[in-house]
Amino acid sequence: MEEYRTGRLLAEYNDTFKENENIYRGLAKRVGLSECSFWILYILRTDYAAPVQSEIGTCLHLPKQSINSALKKLEAEGFLTLAQGSDHRSKTISLTAKGICLCQDTVDKVIDAERAALDGLPPEEQALFLSLLRKYNNLLKNNMQEIN
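The chain above was modelled as a monomer; its predicted structure follows.
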C-alpha cells in the first residue's frame, strides 16, 4: 500500500513539475525565444547587472555549450553584448537598448506574473514552499549520487 501511495505522489509531483516547465517553455516559444535564451534574459533581469558567462551557466544548471550558443545568437540579434572580462576566458554580458526593450515586453512580464503568483500565497506558505522544494532537491541529489 505504501508503494502505491508513494508511486501516486511521485506521479503527481512529476506531472506538476512538467506542467510548470511547460508553462515557461510555452511562453518562450510564444515570444519567439529558445528556452535557453529566455532563461539567460531572465537571469540578466533578476540576479546580476553584468554577469559573466560562467555565472549564467551555474545559475541555469545548463551545459556551457548551450549557454554559449544562446549568447552568440542573442548577440547576433543585437539583444546583448559580450565583452572581455577580467581574464581572457571570461566574457561580461550586457543588455543593449534593443535587449532591454525585449525584456520589458517578455521577461519583465513573466517576473511580474511570478511575483503575483507568489503573492497569492501567504508568507508562511511561501517560505514552506521554498523550504520543502530545497529539502526535496537535496534529498534527491543525495539519493542520485548512489546510482552508478
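The chain has one domain: 2-145.
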